[in-house]
Amino acid sequence: MNSADSPLAPTSVPARPPAAFRRLVWGAVGLGLWWFAYGQLGALARWLTYGVAGLSSASRLGSAVEFFIYEVPKVLMLLTLVVFGVGIIRSFFTPERTRRILSGRRESAGSVLAALLGVVTPFCSCSAVPLFIGFVTTGVPLGVTFSFLISAPMVNEVALVLLFGLFGWKVAAIYLGTGLAIVIVAGWVLGRLRLESQIEEWVYATKTGAAGVEEALTWADRIDRGAEAVRDIVGRVWPFVLLGIAVGAGIHGYVPENFMASIMGRGAWWSVPLAVLIGVPMYSNAAGIIPIVQALLGKGAALGTVLAFMMSVIALSLPEAIILRRVLKPRLIWAFFGIVALGIMFVGFLFNALL
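User: That's the sequence. What structure does it adopt?
Assistant: Structure tokens below.
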């Protein structure tokens, strides 16, 4: 008998698709389910609020509860999607690679590049000191360094995508364009002031180690980095999201429109400086502050005033000033905060006048 005809002969097993292909298929299925669920959130919130809970659609409580039930999954779903995508992008930008890109650049071109890199790199206030030391000691100009440090928290990808999802591309584009303009101009001005003497002396004495060998990552590794970013970032910020949405729900349901229009409207010239002053002591990230922004706009607050408030909360927090005090002398910290605050107020006044 031919061995090929033998019942004991091994049968051929169909080859399994490559792991990368399987991940791509599952990713496409997950994205389709995400899109379907996202489209049903409004109807689900109305059903839970007025059908299940039995609240009146004309009541303030009903309006606040519907806002909360709708916004919580909406913001968390948007946040998860964007953090996953940006987590993949961030796998291309290690601190060493970022320093290499920025070091040796002319200050004008370097400030623009630093502002753009700050949008997609994973650095925040908690990273300010080691980043500042690394940049300064490897020859990155002071103005370029500040452009990066301002851009990383203020013009961040979470705020950009959430604004796009909640308000549309025009508001997101306004935020991106004005934020980058503030970052670039502030970095250039700080560079022109020649305040290198206001950096603590021990920073210049610090020796940075040689850059290590960078990992060679496959696309499967980068997808894993995206999933890790979701677990890390969403896992840390979701309480801020819930708190921000709860505050926004209270504003949406209980604050009269005329009240918000009177203190944050176009007619009150002092509303923009006040919004910046109120925003500085607050400590929140973009995911927590944007639901409040949405509620304020819905109650008649002017776009310029609300943008100024949001930017000051994200970019001019007191915790960041305390962290930076370890490497900067008070005069440079005051210059940093003052220039950025003036830029934010200019944006607020400009958009209140134009829109």
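The radius of gyration is 24 Å.
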